[in-house]
Design a protein that fits this description.
InterPro entries: GAF-like_dom_sf, HTH_MetabolicPath_Reg, Tscrpt_reg_IclR_C. This is IclR-ED domain-containing protein. It holds the Pfam family IclR_C. This protein has 141 residues and is α+β, with helices and mostly antiparallel strands. It has one domain: Beta-Lactamase, CATH 3.30.450. A three-stranded antiparallel β-sheet has the order 1-2-3.
Length: 141
């Protein structure tokens, strides 16, 4: 098992936190990131831009992102975006751990709900409106 050091920087497309943020960026910013270097860190890392677009659309639909061994073999992640008072994504919050513990059938859905709800509460503390309001603010810019 590979363990990342605290403060290690990994590519956005290899982790749930990065996907949760990028899924909610303005289209031009997302497109620029998809045109960038999409390095593979493991055999499970997704580097195909079309597949990543589909995954990012899924994040927008479900409200959370998943990672399954894409940054480090045996690690998984579940993350949700955090929004500020302007409706812009300002970060993400999530959980990272062994794939067999985080993505087990009896755990994954409950963890996704917990992460999503925590992100929603944090977003509210930052002044974010409801999701429909955030989308309206984001498109008005």
């Amino acid at each position: 098992m590979q363990i990342l050091e605290v403060g290690a920087v990994i590519p956005w497309h290899t982790c749930a936190l990065g996907k949760a943020i990028v899924a909610h960026l303005p289209e031009a910013d997302r497109a620029a990131l998809l045109r960038g270097n999409l390095a593979a860190l493991t055999g499970a890392t997704q580097t195909d831009p079309a597949a990543l677009v589909q995954a990012l659309d899924g994040v927008r639909a479900t409200g959370y992102a998943l990672e399954d061994g894409e940054a480090a073999i045996g690690d998984a992640g579940v993350a949700a975006p955090v929004f500020d008072h302007t409706g812009e994504v300002v970060g993400a919050i999530g959980a990272v751990g062994p794939v067999e513990r985080l993505l087990a059938d009896d755990v994954r859905d409950a963890l996704a709900v917990s992460v999503r709800e925590t992100a929603r509460h944090l977003s509210r503390d930052l002044g974010a409106g409801r999701p429909a309001t955030r989308r309206r603010w984001a498109t008005a810019s």
